[in-house]
Amino acid sequence: MKFENYMILEFPSKSANEAFARSAVACFASQLDPTLEELGDIRTAVSEAVTNCIVHAYPDDLGIISLRCRILKDNTLDIVVKDKGVGIENLEQARRPMFTTGGAERSGMGFTIMESFMTTFSVTSSPGKGTSVHMRRKLQRRR
Predict the structure, then answer these.
(1) Residue among 75, 82, 83 nearest 29 (CA)
(2) Could you tell me the residue range of the domain that residue 115 belongs to?
(3) Could you give the CA distance from residue 108 to residue 39 in angstroms, rounded to a whole number?
(4) Helices marked H in 53-142 — which ranges?
(5) Could you tell me the CATH number of the domain that includes residue 29?
(6) What is the pTM of this model?
(7) How many domains does the chain have?
(8) Which of 54, 60, 75, 103 is most enclosed, with most CB atoms within 10 A?
(9) Residues annotated as part of the active site
């Protein structure tokens, strides 16, 4: 699918970069003239994806998070968040609501939230090699 614009960011898995990532995506998405609700959904989904990288992919040290956004010709925002961390042993189990490996302070709702706020959602992972989250959000044309 052809794209009209894109951006690529790479940053360390520091918790301070979660806010940076969601703000950068929101600013990039603003050229599609989203509603505040759409923008909030996008920011939340990106926040969840990046937080998963910070908490789960690199639990004991810093790693690199890659973020790519594209605007597709059909007014769709395409987002990919990747890490090269520990990967996910059992992806089916990890996608179940309330399942977490992050301890009692984690809700286990990250993948569920991402999926509910986006038009399409997929995740691939290989233990020891990392995880990739691919999300798309079709936005309504308001112009």
Answers:
(1) 75
(2) 3-138
(3) 23
(4) 91-94, 110-117
(5) 3.30.565.10
(6) 0.86
(7) 1
(8) 54
(9) 48, 52, 106
